[in-house]
Amino acid sequence: MPLTSRRPPFATLLTGSALAAAATLALAPAAQAAEQPSATTSAAYLAAQLEANDDRLSVSYGDQSYDDPGVTIDAILAMQATGTAGDQSQASTDYVLGAAGTYTGSAGDELYVGATGKLLTLTASRGLGGTVGGTDYLGALQAREQASGQFTDDSEYGDYSNTLGQSFSIIGLERHGVDVSDEAVDFLLTRQCADGGFALENAGACTSDPDATSVAVQALSGAGGQDAAITEAVDYLQARQGGDGGVGGGTSTSEENSNSTGLAAVAFRLAGRTDALTSARGFLDSVRLGCQAPDVAGALAYTPADAAAADASTQPSDQLNRSTAQALLGSTDVSYLDVTSDGAAAAPVALDCADEPTPGDPSTTDPSDEPSTSTTTVTATARPTTPGQEPTRPEVVQTDDARDGGLGGAGWVGAGILALVGAGALVGSRRRGAHR
């Protein structure tokens, strides 16, 4: 597909309306309770989970729990997009920067391009440079671009790069003011299928994947000059949208879910598809939990069935953490291209469930009473420990660029997990509700 002339990438997309929307969200007073579940209450849920888990999110694999910097980055970017929870975003960023070498593979003289692009997206969003812990990730990522334009992993275990990694590489570089090459954009375009969607894998049959397509739309929007390809891609996404606004994932997560819908919502907004965006946001609102599940109020359930099943007994979980972190961006007027920490309120805005009546309990407060001004503290999942022992620091899981999917960093596709365990053995897995 021929390239048209490029327009300036990031600066063009960082419009006044996007900044105004972010500023509006940031105006929500941190001390005042939100009366309805909203994007800000979803951020409060994430902040509570991060605070309870040493400023990071983790992933369970078998009977083990592993630090997951990729989904932690998702959570930080999502909180920033709501203009709240600034203190927790800073604390979690400190964790990610400290784990950068393991997350990107650079600590072992390797480099995973998807994770590196995502790390660079985070640092740009916080006004930081491309060097972390003495490693020049901008230069390292550019060095992984092949003559074909493909960004490939440097690993003794093989190349696990995919379309998500290509897209995040482009986004991360563009966010730092690097004008990516025509070849890099051309290579991404080779993965656009006849139906307009983008394949997840960098080789083989072209089978479109909604999540890979949504992130590719962001990458192409950042690069500029790709309106025709973006139109075809968003046509594909809109064709997959159900009557309730939901969008299904790839072959392993075909049911409509919040992760895929949140990603698609960002693509709809960038392409100016107002009706599709409104519908997608309606779906996200329908799975955003309220006071019927007070311990997880604000979280975005993975599917409508999960949302319908949530009640007073529902507790925080890996799946709720992941689906909320990865879907929340779709409820805001911000994308990976322009999300920023600037102007964020220090505290989160939690949903106030104190005066909500318990169904069937005549002693509960009448719902017509004035709401309390206090905010609830969302229950958080604690890092698992062995009785009588201090908690141990688990290995880091790398969920970006996993073969068979995973935005793990966005890792959003199909639930692929690429774990760096012990001596570095690669473990592949599919997880329902884990797209990165």
Question: Topology of this structure?
Answer:
Blueprint: H1 10-13, H2 16-26, H3 39-52, E1 58-61, E2 64-67, H4 69-82, H5 86-98, H6 100-104, H7 113-125, E3 131-132, E4 135-136, H8 137-143, H9 163-175, H10 182-189, E5 198-199, E6 208-209, H11 210-223, H12 227-239, E7 247-248, E8 256-257, H13 258-270, H14 274-287, H15 304-309, H16 318-327, E9 397-398, E10 416-421, E11 425-430
Antiparallel strand pairs: 1-2, 3-4, 5-6, 7-8, 9-10, 10-11
Helix pairs in contact: 3-4, 4-5, 4-7, 4-16, 7-9, 9-10, 9-11, 11-12, 11-13, 13-14, 13-16
Q: How would you describe this protein?
A:
This protein is mainly alpha-helical and 436 residues long. 39% of the residues lie in helices and 8% in strands. It is built from 16 helices and eleven strands. A three-stranded antiparallel β-sheet has the order 9-10-11. Strands 1-2 form a two-stranded antiparallel ribbon. Strands 3-4 form a two-stranded antiparallel sheet. Helix 4 packs across helix 16 and helix 9 runs antiparallel to helix 10. The protein is globular. It starts with 9 loop residues before the first helix and ends in a 6-residue tail after the last strand. 57% of the residues are buried.
